[in-house]
Amino acid sequence: MRNKLFSIFAGLLFFVFVPAVNADEEDKLESIQIIRLAELTIQKITENKKIENFDKIISKCRGILIFPEIYEGGFFFGAKGGTGILLIRKSKNKFSGPFYFSIGGLSAGLQVGLKKGKVVMTIMTNRGLKSILKERVKFGVDIDAAVIDGVGYSAESTLRLADIYSFSDNTGLFLGGSLEGSYLQPRNDYNKALHGKKFSASEILNAKILNLASEELVDIISNIQSYNK
After folding, report:
1. How much is the CA Rg of the chain, to the nearest whole Å?
2. pTM of structure
3. Rounded Cα gap, residues 202 and 130, in angstroms
4. What is the distance in angstroms between the CA of the first residue and the CA of the last residue of the chain?
5. If both were cysteines, with which of 81, 84, 172, 207 could 104 make a disulfide (CB 3.0 to 4.6 Å apart)?
């Protein structure tokens, strides 16, 4: 009888804890996959001949947001969404991260089509970086749009200088779409899966860690910067 009760209890523990462990492991695998896709994304942007001075801009940036896949589509009403990573520069070839963010939004107006895009945002100033690190930041509200040599955003500033540049490589057609009205917010599930903890804005800003899974990505960025010498 005692053995039977023990078996039942052990079985209950299995069903309670194993799914949670599997879910955590799945999140970690997905978080690493996003890093691998980010490597391909930044290489794709670099190879795009229509994008000029990317190496010069990335060599001067304060941080880099990389979204391997942003899906956007609509018919009069539009929606977009995707998950990406943030690397913060600590010195010329040293970064901390990656920290995970989601981008999303809804919009109305003339919007017809479906588009999948790879997006790299270079954060050029501390002001832009601090704006990104808010719990939920909205383009066009927390960050004002300023188009300069591509798609730039000036964080809470009346100056026509961009704190953030956005570079994209898109497939498909979307009429009337833009980043205005989109929001950014942390993906704490992936942050916890990869690093074992969630991060506040100040912890992200002051962190010095670089997860080993990101070393190849940082090497790619360093090679891009070397073209600007």
Report:
1. 20
2. 0.78
3. 9
4. 77
5. 81
